[in-house]
Amino acid sequence: MNLCARARDWSEIQERMLVPLYETVYERLEVGPGTRLLGLRCGSGLALLMAASRGAAVTGVDSCSERLDLARERLLPDTPPGARGTRARAGTGLRAGAELVDGSPAEAAGARTPAYTLVTVFEPIGCLAGDSEGLGDLLAQALPLTARGTAVVLAGWGPPERCATSSVLRVATKLADPLRGAGGCRQAARDDLEEVTQRAGLKPDGSGRVSCPFGYADLDSAVRGLLSTGLFDGAVAATDGKQVAKELTEALHPYRRPDGTVWMPNVFRYLIARVP
């Protein structure tokens, strides 16, 4: 799949599935005008936009240029298309104070401005082998931009028995080349988030579960949305996109409603930790 098309599918179809997670975290941490938020792996920026609508100053960092371009459309509409490699900031209005960075948190302006008061990593971990690898390095770069006591929020998939999508993800496990290792899916483990925070030297300070059902207009939208997550990349590399899409469509049939829509109940987990 074309990378730009996949990023667009993520932005237009899949990203909204996690809105209940964003809302729950922002409510619990009282995100508002006094918040300076650093969003790691911010994707196409929906969570940042929601925080900005609450009055927060937001900075997003992502290494996927295609998704970051879409975040710029949302948060920095005056930025020239395709502008990459440098920081871009909003001027006035709702998105004033918004900033997007292509690459590393170390390139964010936080080192020369008041420290960030909240760090989020809303991209869920726990379903892809090795998906927490690199998160430690990302946090290590971000934490010097924060103050003591700053909240750091990580997200992950809930128990497989509470996630209908787990059965669909078995397509990725079945088709992926087992020799790829990190490219295959696995079941979420109970302590995935705790292990990441422990390695980062953070202190756990609460957690919660949020219902995030995946709902799609039709089977085609469901397939495109799920492929945009990257969870099926190993399967596509081991076989081909058409084969994966075909088997995905078959796996989704039990979740198709009489009106043609697709509905899969899921539970996601979040962990709040503090910078010591």
Question: What does this protein look like?
Answer:
Keywords: Methyltransferase, Transferase. It comes from Streptomyces bungoensis. This is Methyltransferase type 11. GO terms for molecular function: methyltransferase activity. This protein has 276 residues and is of the alpha/beta class. It has one domain (3-161, 185-215, 266-274): Vaccinia Virus protein VP39 (Rossmann fold). The chain contains ten helices and ten strands. The protein has helices at residues 3-14, 19-28, 46-53, 65-75, 135-142, 165-175, 192-200, 219-227, 233-238, 241-252; strands at residues 36-40, 57-62, 88-89, 99-102, 116-125, 146-157, 203-211, 214-216, 262-264, 267-274. The protein has an eight-stranded mixed β-sheet, with helices on both faces. Strands 8-9 form a two-stranded antiparallel ribbon. Helix 3 (46-53) links the parallel strand 1 (36-40) and strand 2 (57-62). Helix 2 (19-28) runs parallel beside helix 3 and helix 5 crosses helix 7 (192-200). The chain is globular. The termini are far apart. The model is unreliable at 179-183 (pLDDT under 50).
